[in-house]
Amino acid sequence: MFAEDKILIGCNENADVFLLPKLANRHGLVAGATGTGKTVTLKVMAESFSDLGVPVFLADMKGDISGLAKAGTDTEFITNNRQKYSLDDKGFNFKQYPVEFWDLFGQKGLPIRVTLSEMGPVLLSKILNLSEAQAGVLNIVFKVADDESLLIIDLKDLKSMINHVVENKDKYEGEYGAIAPKSANTILRSLIALEDQGGNEFFGEPALDLEDFMQLDDNGKGVINILDAQKLSLSPEIYSTFLLWMLSSLYQNLPEVGDMDKPKFVFFFDEAHLLFDDMSAEFGKKIEQIVRLIRSKGVGLYFISQSPADIPDDILAQLGNRVQHALHAYTPKDQKAVKVAAETFRPNPDFDTAEVISNLGIGEALVSVLDEKGTPTMVEKVNIVPPQSYIGAIDDDLRKQFIDVSMLKPKYSEAVDALSAYEMLLDKIESNPNIESEVPQVDKEIIEEVKTQVETPQDVPEDAPQQPSAGDIVGGILGTILGGGQPASGKKAKKTQSQKMVEKAASQAMNTAAREVTKGIMRGILGQMK
């Protein structure tokens, strides 16, 4: 709840506990056992950031986060808390929040797609659970693609590139190192499994522009981006890798902004343990570096998990704002987790932190935030304030209404299969091999169609405005190959339908290539294109 220009997290008989907006990018942790109230805390914080004018991203693992799109209703529990802590006097009122629904599979939200070139070999190796040797071969495949400007957009592109590199390994091994066909075959088999998990829907174009996550509505409220993860949770490798891709992309692409009055963007990692399971020490160091430095770009990260023990110590040390719900101490392992959780707080002399953690009720939590000087406050036991939006999931019809009216629907709703490595490797221009290195390859089906068409010129009005383009130039070259084109004088000839089709294909190829080439074909901290 946003009150007094601060984020009200919880209340007790003696005080209210606020999170200061200017320290919200020092990251945070929301922990607790299943059913203790983490989801409510997550919603309360997301609502507060939205009211503050900060866009938010979070994953909806069970479907109940979608209630942010609908105004809340009163219950006996909410009424008691409103009266007990005078929340109405602090601005509490039921309301809906601006939301954007997303879904990697395009079923319960706008589809999210990422090109494999943007994902990079490091994160892809994590999805595929590759060994060090297999990851090395995958790195070579991406390096060859980068050096030869072969665009790896989707899975068929990657499979074509792997086959290309293996078939020409004698050509590449001297420069790139050994290429083991056995490792390549293992990668191909892993890609088949990835397709079965929905990889064909996820990898492709139009690729997600993270700037579309950083929107405000007409009233200046931050849009809450909700990723439906109910189906995605069945593919934890894809889920965790997508979130890591988002994190590293934000780190690489956002400019330095220094200290701000409020974050530029807040990112909640639900089921955070999935990010760190089986993570190598080297990979963990890279993630720790990103977490440590990304706050200077105005991004606040909040990890949600059952126990602080799920988070590596180096990353846990970066999380200054903490909310701890109940943990059960039924086993020695549970007791150790309670002890770890208690030790992460600055002690309060009024109670034993470890004992309180085991006896917290639903909606109660221990909270410690950073004060004006950036120092953790003494831990307080509070009741989390109730959300102002609806508690529970919205129905599919209402969800569809939000998706249908989204301004981003025209941009992302339809997949695009642009010319890329698969087509470039498949289609070779045999008529004139001297231009192969200079001109993007054109789809063989288009060329064959052009060859078989009746060469009947179609007049173009002489007074029609004509602007030379890359497509005109390339189309002229290809038109010459196919038996037409511009005369040597440079004067434009009347175009046949055949030439127009070739030009259209060539222009698409050049636009696709230009988009990728302008990214610099450099790979950052996690092997992503930047």
In short:
Helices cover 40% and strands 11% of the residues. The chain has 530 residues and is α/β, with parallel strands linked by helices. Strands 1, 2, 3, 4, 5, 6, 7, 8, 9, 10, 11, 12 and 13 form a 13-stranded mixed β-sheet that branches.
Q: How would you describe this structure in keywords?
A:
alpha/beta, 13-stranded mixed sheet, 13 strands, 530 residues
Rounded to the nearest angstrom, the distance between the terminal CA atoms is 37 Å
Report the helical percentage: 25-40%
The shape, in one word, is: globular
**Structural class from helices and strands?**
alpha/beta
Identify low-pLDDT runs.
428-432, 434-447, 449-498, 507-520
> Which percent range describes the beta-strand content?
5-15%
Quote the average pLDDT.
84
SS elements, strand count: 13
- Discrete helix count: 20
Rg calculated over all Cα atoms: 27 Å
The largest β sheet comes out as: 13 strands, mixed
Describe this protein's structure:
With 530 residues, the protein is α/β, with parallel strands linked by helices. 40% of the residues lie in helices and 11% in strands. It is built from 20 helices and 13 strands. It has helices at 38-52, 76-84, 116-128, 132-147, 155-167, 169-176, 181-196, 199-202, 236-253, 273-276, 281-293, 313-316, 332-343, 353-357, 396-404, 409-412, 421-426, 444-452, 470-481, 497-517; strands at residues 2-3, 6-11, 16-19, 28-31, 56-60, 99-103, 110-111, 224-228, 265-269, 299-305, 321-324, 364-368, 380-384. Strands 1, 2, 3, 4, 5, 6, 7, 8, 9, 10, 11, 12 and 13 form a 13-stranded mixed sheet that branches. α4 (132-147) packs across α7 (181-196), α5 (155-167) runs antiparallel to α7 (181-196) and α18 packs antiparallel against α20 (497-517). The longest helix is centred in the last third of the chain and has 21 residues, at 497-517. The radius of gyration is 27 Å and the shape is globular. The two termini are 37 Å apart.
